[in-house]
Specification:
Blueprint (H helix, E strand, L loop, with lengths): L3 E8 L10 E8 L4 E7 L14 H18 L26 H8 L25 H9 L7 E4 L2 E10 L2 E6 L5 E5 L6 E5 L2 E15 L2 E13 L9 E6 L5 E5 L12 H10 L2 E5 L5 E6 H11 L13 E6 L4 E5 L4 E5 L5 E6 L10 E6 L5 E5 L10 E6 L6 E7 L2 E6 L5 E5 L11 E7 L5 E10 L2 E5 L5 E5 L14 E7 L1
Antiparallel strand pairs: 1-2, 2-3, 4-5, 5-29, 6-7, 7-9, 8-9, 9-10, 11-12, 12-13, 13-14, 15-16, 16-17, 17-18, 19-20, 20-21, 21-22, 23-24, 24-25, 25-26, 27-28, 28-29
Organism: Candidatus Aeolococcus gillhamiae
InterPro entries: ScyD/ScyE-like (IPR048031), WD40/YVTN_repeat-like_dom_sf (IPR015943)
Protein name: ScyD/ScyE family protein
Length: 493
């Protein structure tokens, strides 16, 4: 049965370019349950004043660099974050698991050459249309899905499997484990520059109990390849100290493609880029249009990244007492969402010469600073990804470096900092191997889960010193000819 949606839209006093200014209350009935959704979209009135005191100098410097890069484009090859540059010597399609990296991490780039149609575009790796390699690799790893093994002194155990593109993790108010599932897309597909993008409402927030998956919130929008791999939808997940759970949705309503069914288009417009509060009874409320705000911000600051802006893809979220922080992997910003839903850019992460920073995760330290991990560090060179330290009101500074494809980060119970590496060989490498790097307070590094983690994502610290990450995070929950499914794993000493 097709969902029936009833919405009431009221104008608000807030206005912003490309987003904000309305309050929408909707009721969805999908034939099985009634969900009430309230969408509140606001933007900051002080957006043109960047919070970084050195912003004007930084902006001028970026303008100069942008002109230099543009003038030099005809003299040297340029690699942008639209696709992974390597391994350039590998012919043929990229590995099956690589198809999810672009959509999962920095997808939904608006592509409208010559004023053409808006479409979703893979921005890091090439799309894969053949599944032969997927089946072959899955067969060689058929023993992985039920493992309980160790690397060094760390033991990795599967907590749950059969998950649909699992991403962010959080403990709920009842102490149970929750995961954001980006879904498997849907049956409404449109042609993109590198293949089809399939849209649907298969995203969910799920509770994991004794290995069982209880999909508590369903009907969240999802975009994936036709096979359901590499979906993006609800990505980040965080619990506020008062017990509230928050997820962040991908992209922005400005990036909607044409040609989708009216009901699905309405759902996408209502959810894309939204910060959503979820309740354990299955209801959810969209409280801030972060994606719409960031897209508009990028449009106003297009000179920072003239060949890639405007763009938006909110990805990581950190919920604190009175403030929620979001990192946007496409606008390269750290945002603050106030109690009233107002969104403000706190920091912009500078672009390397050949790509952008692509921030994906964040955590707050005991010193009060925010620590932000990035995906590629520009150009996808091995060891190029870094962790930034951000003190609001100051420019971000590099705190730790030498990582590969960071997709999760945070502090553990012992004060160590953890980094989840999506692929240890760099984004788009031939191997899906990933790991978690623990940085002790004295700076010593230890690798956890080597040989046990594949395309991991997210990070959550347990009170007993164990940690949790999503594994096979770009895979759907239904296995195809022995291929792995999305998992959540627990790593303990």
């Amino acid at each position: 049965m097709s969902p029936v949606k009833h919405c009431h839209v009221m104008p608000s006093s807030a206005e912003d370019e490309g987003g904000g200014g309305t309050t929408r209350t909707c009721s969805d009935h999908d034939g099985t349950r009634l969900t009430h959704v309230s969408i509140i979209s606001r933007t900051s009135e002080s957006e043109e004043t960047h919070p970084d005191s050195n912003y004007q100098t930084t902006r001028t410097r970026h303008n100069e660099l942008a002109h230099r890069r543009m003038s030099a484009a005809s003299r040297r090859p340029r690699t942008t974050h639209r696709r992974v540059p390597g391994p350039a010597r590998r012919a043929g399609p990229a590995p099956y698991y690589a198809r999810g990296a672009a959509r999962t991490l920095v997808s939904a780039r608006l592509s409208a050459p010559g004023g053409g149609a808006r479409v979703f575009d893979n921005r890091i790796v090439r799309r894969v249309t053949q599944v032969g390699l997927a089946v072959a690799l899955a067969s060689s790893l058929s023993g992985v899905t039920g493992y309980a093994s160790s690397a060094g002194t760390a033991t990795v155990r599967v907590v749950a499997q059969g998950l649909n593109n699992p991403r962010g993790l959080a403990f709920g108010p009842n102490g149970q484990l929750y995961v954001a599932e980006a879904g498997t897309g849907g049956s409404s597909c449109v042609a993109g520059p590198r293949g089809q993008d399939c849209f649907g409402r298969t995203g969910s927030i799920s509770r994991l109990v004794d290995g069982h998956v209880h999909r508590m919130v369903t009907g969240l929008v999802s975009v994936a390849s036709p096979g359901g791999q590499g979906a993006t939808g609800p990505d980040g997940l965080s619990q506020r100290p008062d017990g509230g759970l928050y997820t962040i949705m991908t992209a922005s309503p400005q990036q909607l493609p044409p040609g989708l069914p009216a009901g699905l288009t309405e759902a996408l417009a209502a959810q894309l880029g939204q910060l959503i509060r979820v309740n354990t009874n299955g209801d959810y409320t969209a409280i801030a249009g972060v994606g719409a705000h960031d897209f508009a911000w990028a449009k106003r600051h297009i000179a920072l990244v003239p060949q890639q802006f405007p763009d938006a893809n909110p990805y990581g979220v950190l919920a604190l007492d009175n403030t929620i922080y979001v990192v946007d992997a496409a606008s390269n910003t750290l945002d603050r969402v106030g109690p009233d839903g107002t969104v403000r850019v706190l920091a912009f992460f500078p672009n390397p010469p050949v790509s952008d920073a692509v921030p994906t995760c964040l955590a707050r330290g005991e010193d009060g600073a925010l620590y932000v991990g990035e995906l590629t560090g520009g150009g996808n060179a091995l060891g190029a990804a870094v962790v930034w330290r951000v003190v609001p009101g100051h420019k971000p500074v590099v705190w730790q470096s030498g990582f590969n494809a960071i997709t999760g980060c945070g502090f553990g119970a012992d004060g160590s900092f953890y980094v989840t590496e999506f692929q240890t060989g760099g984004l788009g490498a031939a191997s899906p191997a990933g790991d978690v790097v623990r940085i002790a307070e004295n700076g010593t590094r230890h690798v956890l889960g080597a040989g046990q983690l594949f395309l991991p994502n997210g990070f959550l610290a347990g009170p007993d010193g164990s940690i949790y990450v999503s594994n096979w995070s770009v895979m759907p929950g239904t296995s195809t000819q022995g291929s792995p499914t999305g998992q959540v794993v627990r790593i303990s000493a």
